[in-house]
Specification:
119 residues, mainly beta, Barwin-like endoglucanases, eight-stranded mixed β-sheet, 2 helices, 9% helix, globular
Length: 119
């Protein structure tokens, strides 16, 4: 019998929430360049951990423009996160036990891997 497990696929560490929009649907809008590097697909479910207050919740991701450095949270989850908070974004995948591809997990640290330009 083959067993499968949920395994960490990707983690984006210590990314800063740039803006929150409390009205509307609940989703995370994130720079497409960061999503591609982390191998997270648009509409994929993610788990968010807020470093500032310990809150955690699930939502889904939509892409923002490539190179935009966008990390916006929208909808009711904005009660758990404020602009300026640092979060981790995790995604998981199911693989047959013992068959996890060697490239996973992918860990991205945006302020190191995608530095923001200085103004």
């Amino acid at each position: 019998m083959d067993l499968s497990s949920s395994i960490l696929k990707s983690e984006i560490q210590h990314i800063r929430i740039s803006k929150v929009y409390p009205n509307g649907e609940d989703y995370l809008l994130l720079d497409e360049e960061i999503l591609e590097a982390a191998k997270i697909s648009e509409n994929e479910k993610v788990l968010i951990f807020n470093h500032n207050n310990g809150a955690s919740f699930e939502t889904y991701v939509l892409k923002a423009g490539k190179g935009s450095h966008a990390c916006f949270l929208c909808g009711p989850a904005t009660r758990l996160v404020h602009a300026g908070d640092h979060i981790n974004i995790l995604s998981y995948a199911r693989w047959l036990t013992g068959h996890v591809p060697a490239v996973y997990p992918i860990i991205i640290v945006p302020f190191i891997d995608f530095p923001q330009p200085h103004h």
